Known about the structure:
Blueprint (H helix, E strand, L loop, with lengths): L1 H14 L1 H9 L1 H9 L5 H4 L4 H4 L4 H5 L8 H6 L12 H9 L2 H7 L7 H7 L1 H9 L7 H5 L19 H9 L14 H6 L2 H8 L8 H5 L10 H5 L1 H4 L1 H8 L2 H9 L5 H4 L32 H31 L5 H20 L5 H56 L1
Helix pairs in contact: 2-3, 22-23, 22-24, 23-24
Bound molecules: heme C (9 copies).
Amino acid sequence: MKTIRLILALVILALSPVDQIAAAESNCLTCHRDFEEDTGPSHKITRDVHFQKGLDCVSCHGGDPTLEDMDDVRESKGYRGVPDHREVPQFCASCHSDAAYMRGHNPALPTDQLQKYKTSVHGELLFGKNDSKVANCISCHTVHEIGSAKMPHSSTHPLNIPFTCGKCHSDADYMAAYDISTSQLDDYRASVHGMALLERQDLGAPACNDCHGNHGAAPPGTSSLSAVCGNCHALEAELYNLSPHKNAFEENDFPMCETCHSNHRIIKPYDAMVGSDDTALCSECHSHVDGTKGLETAEGISMAIAELVAAHDQAREVLEDAIEKGMMTTDEEFRLKEVDQLLIQTRTLVHSYSLDSVLPKAEAGIQKADSVKTNSASLIDEYYFRRKGLGIATLFITLLALALWLKIRRL
Ligand code: HEC
Ligand code: HEC
Ligand code: HEC
Ligand code: HEC
Ligand code: HEC
Ligand code: HEC
Ligand code: HEC
Ligand code: HEC
Ligand code: HEC
């Protein structure tokens, strides 16, 4: 009984420590709760990370929480009131840029948000041009229900980020005064990344901020934005950096990955992208008379991949036949998986744009696929051989039985 009461007390304490302390000490909350609707600050605040970590109205707005009248509060020492759009960054940064203060609460939190924000297009326009339409801290974080990126309700949770940014960036009316497109959200949602994140909840796929930064909101042309794909696609970036395209693209001011894959509407790559057909990517820049080995290489890579795919498919077909016939195929199934891997690696090696890199890998894949095919075919031969053997045996036994039966009858 005693332990149950103790657990109960602990649960109550754990569930509402801040609430009770704040309510006991602060008239701000009690009075505001009395007259505000459910959507008012004093109700929303229970979802707010500040409130959950023990901060309250006074921490941000200032004022004397023992007073019982709002007019007196407004007159009281330290009352900061409500910041306007342009003042918000300083308002939040009064704590968040104060390293000593933040260390006392959560030493793991960075304190560079304002500094980075100032370098973003948002910050430059807010401070430089007094632009009230760009994002400030609360456009991205909301107010009175601010969460950390881990909280599912938070506007900065990865699954919510595309809509947090898209709220402005996909609103053509809102963005009419600016010379940029408003298709980023739609494009992103149709991309491999958008589908992975929003439809399959794959948190490894990038949301807007994984490419643009949280507070830097890097604009086009920044080198960090161009290199960001390599943070996750390290192999492709490594190959690209050693390839003839690295220098050629830099000289022509082509961004590294987007030139071929685009930035927001990245579709699933397919083999026909490489080659010398009119529809292939390579033909957009290369021709047979441009004096480079570009298109010749493209043709070679395309043929190597096509041969590997064909060898793989044939091997699979024969193997499936062997599986259907009930043969012991574990080894060959495992080896076909290795061919799958070699095919993936060959496609990645496209980013070397070099036959010397692609051909050996494709060749290794083709050889392995051919041996899977040969071995599976032997297994199928064995099946027929055994079946033939079984047929002969059955015939033999039947004849024997017949002979026996005749003999018995004669006796
Ligand atoms: C006795 C009730 C009461 C108390 C106590 C009270 N408020 Fe208010 N507060 C109000 C009312 C009423 C308004 C005005 C709402 C309106 O105009 O719609 C208001 C407005 C505000 C505003 C909006 C800006 C402004 O100046 O009008 C802020 C911010 C605010 N209160 C914060 C606080 C804080 C912080 C405390 C505690 C230090 C506090 N309030 C204590 C009733 C109260
Ligand atoms: C983390 C800081 C923070 C805390 C904590 C906080 N506020 Fe605010 N509050 C703000 C900011 C920033 C604005 C300005 C919002 C805007 O510009 O839209 C604001 C605006 C307001 C307003 C006026 C506009 C509105 O949204 O209705 C009221 C009233 C208000 N706060 C009351 C409160 C009360 C009551 C509490 C405690 C329950 C509280 N706030 C806690 C930061 C805070
Ligand atoms: C009174 C000081 C103070 C003010 C003003 C303040 N914050 Fe905070 N903020 C904190 C503290 C303290 C924490 C919680 C640290 C902890 O314990 O994890 C926090 C946490 C946060 C977090 C969650 C960080 C994480 O990932 O865990 C965000 C986001 C945040 N604040 C944004 C804002 C924004 C936006 C504003 C302005 C509207 C603001 N804060 C104003 C003190 C403040
Ligand atoms: C363009 C949108 C945007 C703006 C503007 C913005 N933030 Fe953030 N902020 C984010 C995102 C997105 C994250 C976190 C993402 C994550 O960790 O995945 C974040 C994270 C944070 C954190 C957690 C610690 C960290 O740095 O990761 C704090 C604190 C914070 N922001 C405060 C602020 C303050 C203060 C301002 C204004 C000076 C501000 N933010 C402006 C989008 C924004
Ligand atoms: C409150 C509305 C609003 C929100 C929310 C917002 N932005 Fe912006 N953003 C703007 C406006 C307005 C501009 C200025 C456009 C210009 O001058 O080209 C801008 C500019 C930018 C630019 C520079 C574009 C360029 O070519 O100059 C980038 C990149 C950007 N935002 C990314 C983001 C990301 C990423 C998020 C979410 C994490 C976000 N924005 C959230 C309004 C917003
Ligand atoms: C996979 C990385 C990536 C993701 C995810 C991403 N962006 Fe971008 N974004 C880029 C790159 C790269 C550019 C620059 C293109 C250039 O240099 O022409 C860009 C450009 C922009 C611009 C400048 C205007 C334009 O369209 O060229 C804005 C605004 C923008 N992105 C907003 C967003 C928003 C909002 C989201 C989320 C819905 C988002 N981005 C998601 C990589 C990304
Ligand atoms: C935060 C990590 C991250 C960043 C940054 C990133 N990606 Fe991705 N990307 C992924 C993940 C995870 C997938 C797998 C999605 C899936 O399951 O389909 C993926 C898938 C892809 C695919 C499809 C691959 C396939 O075989 O289907 C391409 C192409 C791609 N990304 C290109 C890019 C480009 C170009 C950029 C930069 C503009 C970029 N990515 C930035 C994580 C990232
Ligand atoms: C956006 C334009 C563009 C696209 C698309 C493109 N290339 Fe290139 N490529 C270039 C440029 C520019 C050079 C440098 C040409 C020079 O040295 O004069 C180059 C050089 C090369 C070279 C070195 C040629 C030599 O003779 O040294 C190879 C090989 C190559 N590309 C293969 C490819 C393949 C394969 C594809 C398709 C997957 C492709 N390229 C797609 C622009 C492009
Ligand atoms: C010159 C054009 C070109 C450039 C530049 C380029 N790619 Fe590719 N990428 C391709 C082609 C073509 C394929 C399709 C290969 C296939 O499926 O046969 C591809 C496929 C991919 C794939 C899926 C296959 C795999 O490797 O898993 C990813 C992921 C990818 N690219 C990422 C990137 C990244 C990241 C960059 C920048 C470092 C980049 N690409 C630069 C042309 C390019």
